[in-house]
Amino acid sequence: MRILWTVNMLMPSAAKAMGVAVGHAVSWIDAMSQRLAKKDDLKLAIACPLKCAALNVTEVDGITYYTFPQNNCEKVDYWTDIIKSFEPDVIHAYGTEGKHNYLLLKNHSDIPILVSLQGIISEYQRHYYAGIDFSTMLRYTTLKDILVPTGFFSGRRFFIKRSKFEKEILCMARNVEGRSTWDRVSAYNINPNLEYYYCPRMIRTPFYVHEWNIEKMERHSILVHQAHYPIKGLHFVFQALGKLKNKYPDIKLYVAGKDILHPQKLSRRLMPGGYAKYLKHLIKENHLEEVIYYTGFLSAEQLAEALTKVNAVVIPSAIENAPNSLAEGEIVGTPTVASYVGGNMDMLEHNKDGFLYCYNEPNMLAEYLTQIFESDELAKRLSTHAKQVARKRHDPDTLEKTILSIYKTLINRKNESHR
C-alpha cells in the first residue's frame, strides 16, 4: 500500500534534516507517521509546501518527503509530478484550510483522496472575538492590529479569507476523516454528499507514560495551552482567577506556548498587539501580576510532566474541534475543566471525566475549579475515569488499525468501480 500525505508543516525530524525551523502544530500527524513508517507492507510519502524555489525530494527515516514552493501552490499544480513520482494508492490531505490542497482536489480526483478535518475555519471565524465586545476592541486596538493580518480586527478577516479555500476544498472532496459530532455536522453543512469516517487523533507517547498524582501536584495551580489570540479564551480565565485569588492567594496559572505578554523581539515589545494589551489590563485589574507564568513552548515530554504537577487543566476556547490539549490532559489524568463548545462534549462527560462550562462565564469556571481545589476525592475520581476513557479512545494500536482500514476501504471501492 502506497500512501501520500499532504500536510501544512514538516515533521520535526524532516525539518531538522532539511535545516528548516521545527513547527509545533503537527504532533498527532508525527505520531502516526512514525508508526506507519515501520510497516513493511506500507510506503509513506509526505508532501508539504515550503519556502523553496522548486519541487524537491528527500528521504528521512524511511519516509519520502516532497517539498514545493508555498508562494504559488494554489496556482501551479505540483501534484502532477508528485503523483507521477510516487504513484500513491490513496492521498490523505491533512487540513482543509491549506491553499496547497486546492489544485490537488480540483485536478486529481481519479485517485482516492481522504481529507482530514482539523479546525473548520468557516465556523471558527464566527467565534474569533470570543465574547470581546466592540467597544473593548476599539479601546485596546493598537497600530499592530491595523498593520498585521492577525490583529484584533484583521485576524478574523484572515480566517474568513482562508475559509474560502476550505469551502471549495470540501465541496470538491468525496471522503473526509474527522473525530467529533461537531466536525461531521460542520462538514455536512458545507457538502452533504461527503462520506465521513471517524478516527480520533493519535497522542504522543509521553502522555501515556506520565500520570497525574494528587500527592505530587502543586496545590491551586492551573495549566492552559496555546492562548495567544482571542478565540482561545484566556481573557475569561484571567477574570475567573480574579474571583479565585482572594480565597486562594497562592493560586498560579501556567500558560504553555507563545508568550505574547513578554515578547523577545524588540519590534514586538515596541508595537504590542491589542489582545496582549487587553490581557495586561485584565492582569492589572485583577491583581494577577504574581499569578501568571508563561512556560514557553514545551516538548511532549515537558508538557506531559507539567500536566502531572498542576491541580487542574483548563480548555477555555470559544470554539474547538476535538483538541489534543484536552486528550493529553485526560490521558495523563489531570482534572479537567473545558468549555462546552465544538467537539469537547464528545471527549468529556460532565461530572464524570471533568467539568464543562459556557466559555464566556468566568463565574462557572471559578466554581468548577473551586470544587476541584476543595475535594481531593472528587479530583481523583475525575482523574481516574477520564484517564480510563481517554486511553481507550486514543489507543495507538486501535487508531493505526482504524486509519489503515479507511485506506483499504477507499482502495477497494476504487478497484470495484473499475471492474
Name the descriptors.
six-stranded parallel β-sheet, alpha/beta, 14 strands, 44% helix
Strand content: 15-25%
CA-based gyration radius: 22 Å
Report how far apart the termini are: 20 Å
Average pLDDT works out at 92
The major pleated sheet works out as: 8 strands, mixed
Shape: globular
SS elements, strand count: 14
Q: Low-confidence parts lasting 5 or more residues at pLDDT below 50?
A: none
Count of DSSP H/I helices: 19
Q: Could you give the order of strands across the largest sheet?
A: 3-4-2-1-5-6-7-8
Structural class: alpha/beta
What percent of residues adopt helix (DSSP H or I)?
A: 40-55%
Question: What features would you describe in this structure?
Answer:
There is one protein chain. By secondary structure, the chain is an alpha/beta fold. The strands form 2 sheets. The chain has an 8-stranded mixed β-sheet with strand order 3-4-2-1-5-6-7-8, sandwiched between helices. It is globular, with a radius of gyration of 22 Å. The model has no long low-confidence stretch (mean pLDDT 92).
In a nutshell, what does this entry contain?
The protein is 44% helix and 17% strand. The chain has helices at residues 12-18, 27-36, 79-86, 102-107, 121-124, 134-140, 143-147, 154-172, 181-190, 206-209, 234-244, 266-270, 274-285, 300-309, 324-332, 344-347, 362-374, 376-393, 396-417, and strands at residues 2-6, 43-50, 56-60, 63-69, 90-94, 113-116, 175-178, 195-198, 218-225, 252-256, 292-296, 310-315, 336-339, 355-357.
Topology of this protein?
Blueprint: E1 2-6, H1 12-18, H2 27-36, E2 43-50, E3 56-60, E4 63-69, H3 79-86, E5 90-94, H4 102-107, E6 113-116, H5 121-124, H6 134-140, H7 143-147, H8 154-172, E7 175-178, H9 181-190, E8 195-198, H10 206-209, E9 218-225, H11 234-244, E10 252-256, H12 266-270, H13 274-285, E11 292-296, H14 300-309, E12 310-315, H15 324-332, E13 336-339, H16 344-347, E14 355-357, H17 362-374, H18 376-393, H19 396-417
Parallel strand pairs: 1-2, 1-5, 2-4, 5-6, 6-7, 7-8, 9-10, 9-12, 10-11, 12-13, 13-14
Antiparallel strand pairs: 3-4
Helix pairs in contact: 11-13, 11-17, 15-18
